[in-house]
Amino acid sequence: MPEKNVPTSPPTCPTDLSLIDSTYPVGVPLTATYRLGFAFKTINLRLPVILTKIIDQLSRDKNEIGESCGQEARDDVKIVVGALAKFKNEMVTNKPIYKTGCKIWDSYLEHIAQLYFEGVVEDVKWYFAPWLHVECYFYKRIHDAFQLSNHLKSFDPFRKQKEDGFECSKKSSAQLAEYVLSSDSSDAVLQTLLEVGLWGNRCDLSLSSGEEVSQLGNLVDQLQGLRNFVLCDESANFWKILKDAKTANPDNPLTVGYVLDNAGFELFTDFCLADKLMDRVDRIDFYVKTTPWFISDALKTDFDWLIERMCSGDCSDFPVLVKLAERWKGYVLSKRWTVVESEFWTYPHAYFEMQDADPELYSTLTKHTHLIFKGDLNYRKLIGDVSWKPDTPFKDALRGFCPAPLLSLRTLKADCIAGLRAGLAEEIESKSQDWLVSGEYGIMQHAQ
Ligand SMILES: O=P(O)(O)OC[C@H]1O[C@](O)(CO)[C@@H](O)[C@@H]1O
Ligand SMILES: [Mn+2]
Questions:
Q1: Architecture of 159-447 per CATH?
Q2: Strand order in the sheet with 283-288
Q3: Is any atom of ligand 1 closer than 6 Å to the C-beta of 294?
Q4: Atom 5 of ligand 1, residue of closest alpha carbon
Q5: Is 338 helix (H, G, I), strand (E, B) or coil?
Q6: Taking 80 as the threshold, does the pLDDT of residue 97 lie above it?
Q7: Which of 97, 104, 156, 332 is the most buried (most CB within 10 A)?
Q8: What number is the ipTM of this complex?
Q9: Does the pLDDT value for residue 172 go beyond 70?
């Protein structure tokens, strides 16, 4: 690991509430301290908007919630809204990141305080703490507000947006389904679906603060035009490892650990890729979150909903969707597709910390022939949300995390990146100033 690129010493996080009018220096965890970084924009603008939307939506829907969950649930709405409003005030006034009473979170907070704030927990504040920690804490606190209620503990404030995300992309989904059903399992088709999976990641709802993002048009037809926007394509290693593993041990079951990101259209693209992958591997384990996360992230309920929805009368206009979903149901029933829930994905930890924080999950991941990590947040956690020099080797940025060979498919929506060839970042920057956060560019990076 080249010492010069690794942020061994913590950044100086000013505790005098002064922000810095620049973007991040090299080698520090991203924080909102730097006014010109995307972290600042997120904490200053995007997160308050997301929270306000939840509060408004709950207030608007309280009668409906009362009708479907009972009068007491209607009263619960008031409790949750009160807690969220108080929480919003903490955030916008840069209060400390308070303890939550949850051991794993509280000790992580102490760890952050030790690393960056000389152990003073009260100094870990919204604008000065590492962005990754703060943004994860944001969703944890939203979830905690619902835990104060009696009847809304498992209420998902983002469910409707996630479902709408798929509904609005139905036509494109049907075109993709047609492609999947009518094509063979050649290398070219599999590569096409890998790229489809990559670009499916443009459809997250967090970047848009919850505004509808749908796929329009036939994604397969759009791939040619999108190829110039792939900044790093190491996907050949993925296919090679699967092939070599089969040749070396034809009787050993091959499995892929597929760490999902967003529900809705992105999940649909993941299923299309997984469908064709079944000709190469024996089993795919899909890793999902356990609580509503970054608006559109997939839960087990979203996984099940999508397949059910496709089989239901609501998709009868698109028989290809029904047909494909029947096949996917079969994979689930035969356990060739499994859903694995783990709380670790909703911890604030970067992945280089997984082995200590959740040795069991780490060891489960080591058993896969290959791993796929979808999306921007997974990428941020892979490289520790650090402002690496963009040509830092991806493997170095992982800081030892590599439980099995892994492929990251990510469209760029946060200002951290590693693994680019020297000079490329500058080239792209001269064409598009917001290339790191616009979601226009993508990477397929591999490590083993
Ligand atoms: O769904 P993804 O691809 O992980 O994206 C999540 C989004 O949330 C962010 O973490 C910022 O809110 C960005 O990194 C990204 O825009
Ligand atoms: Mn997401």
A1: 3-Layer(aba) Sandwich (3.40)
A2: 230-233, 442-447, 406-411, 370-374, 255-259, 283-288, 337-341
A3: yes
A4: 376
A5: strand
A6: yes
A7: 97
A8: 0.97
A9: yes
